[in-house]
Amino acid sequence: MTNVSPQLDTRFRAAAAEEGLLDVAYDVVESPLGELFVGVSDRGLCVISYEADPDLQVERLARGFGSRVLRSPRPIDPARRQLDEYFAGKRKRFDLDVDLRLARDFGRAVLDELGRVPFGEVTTYGALAAKAGKPKAARAVGTIMNRNPVPIVLPCHRVVGANGSLVGYAGGLERKQTLLRLEGALLA
Amino acid sequence: MEPVRIPPFETFYAEHKDPVFAHLRRLLGSSAEDAFQETFLRALRAYPELRHGRHLRAWVFTIATRVAIDETRRTRPRGELPEVAVEDGLPPHAELGPLTDELPPKERAAVVLRYGFDLPYDEIAAALGSSEAAARQAASSGVRRLRERSQES
Question: What is the ipTM score, two decimals?
Answer without folding.
Answer: 0.90
